[in-house]
């Protein structure tokens, strides 16, 4: 007996340890405890206090939909505010479902519209995706018989009570610890980059000082900048919305990556002997101070940073540019021109970071703050930005459009099937379809097995329990336990356990609302199987390849547009074409679709036998083009190199090689692979070797323009060459949890 008891204790301890390892911060158990308490209070109060089954049904399922199916971002007060503000939408969906429940076809038509609109709304703000499933459940629940419009006040009252209590519980009951926000990560990255800029400036003026310190600062800067990649943050906390502030944060992150890349090039080009009065070093120090200040400004309540001081430093650096005063009076100092051009390009990216931080913190922009087309949206209203986002995704290759249409059609078919077959609990058919259907056929098949297996296990256990126990009081007492098991322990143990325990929970609930005996478990099993079949068929028949296929297609077009923008920018400098505004605008439009496909791609399973493309690096290769071209055009006007045949030949050859490199990368992306590339040198010494034969053909001002354009092309080539290859043993079958 003691031995048996000891084994039980060991087993229980092992299970508890396993659960704690899967939920180290107890976030899942805290959420389950909040949901259990609110759901129990609402159900008991409505069912046994008010004596209303309708109030109890909508109160309980309102709690489950808002507390379990809704995945909301931010700290507890923000989540509570979102829940309360969503109530008008919830009321409208319940009212629409209640009024359309008179006819199967009317309800199915409403499901088609609601399913698409709710899912597609996530295009404007991906955080709305966290509410999509909950919104759909509210309509689904109300759209089934009995058709009783007179009970609408009770339905709305039950849901309102549930949502309000759940919002209060989010704030006051066991609130979750707040994770590191994206702004905090960005501030830390700014501090790390600023420290590296200080080290790079010191190395330019004294290459022998602090030999090991620049390397340590460089390593830290790369680590903290890598931490601001979107896939390093929880999806709910990543700045992925179409609003001005989230877009500004994404631009800030891209600008910091560009600053770090330029700083790497400057550090590698340190002169062999100290140059105490080097303009590039002075500008670097100013950039470091500005970057550090901008990072601090991202903290709540901190004042915004203005670009005025940086503009003064840039003006001084441009005035110190060694352009000479004659045709060939002195040989131009090309290495210094290269270093100064790199420092100015770096300062332009720091300015982008400054203006982006002002937009991200809600500061008012001055007339000179939106000089870059990157911030043309900053003075637009949120509704205008969302409309632009919606319009961009009304395209045949939009992964969001495909996903929304697939879900809407599947739910409408499920609603028709449940109505035609006159299923007593047809709601479960649509819930199963919603649970199984994913954005790709592979993901749908993966979700099918645990859904079906868990339902079978839960139905068998539920049927056996209902044969043995027919006293509603027992089920009333068991409700809190089954709630905690379904939404706490089930989530930690895995999808099979979660589905089985959820089936048991539904049995406990409906045994108190409308007792049917063991046939309730049978109905649950049949409904889930039907919903799963519909979900699988929709997943296989309607755009089954998911966002991966769309991502490759959109990336190919994005890279082609980037290559065209590079060529047109060079042609503009040579006087062969007008300014490349149209080409740069096309790159920005393509960027919208590829960003969307990329976000959805991370929520899917991928073929573990297929080599993975490093999408972060591929997208960065395109992101180099637009801000770099805009920066280049501000200091080097169109036609600045016209009439210089030698420069034209050199730059046309470099632009042609860049197009070939982009085309090769696009071909690799289209086939889902990346290959080795020859390293590209961006050192100023190598640049001098390239343009030395041309130095006697033009004045120093033209040489300056040539150096800047050639340096920009070399940095683009370096970005393509640095795209890392996946390790041989890298598994790409892992799936990020939404």
TrEMBL record:
Membrane-spanning segments: 51-70, 82-99, 105-123, 407-431, 451-468, 473-490, 525-543
Q: What is this protein called?
A: FUSC family protein
- Organism superkingdom: Bacteria
Q: What family does the database annotate?
A: Belongs to the YccS/YhfK family.
Organism annotation: Micromonospora arida
InterPro entries for the chain? Memb_transporter_dom (IPR049453)
UniProt KW keywords = Cell membrane, Membrane, Transmembrane, Transmembrane helix
Q: What residues does the Integral membrane bound transporter domain cover?
A: 416-537
User: What membrane topology is given?
Assistant: Multi-pass membrane protein
Coiled-coil regions listed: none
**Subcellular location as annotated:** Cell membrane
Q: Name one GO cellular component term.
A: plasma membrane
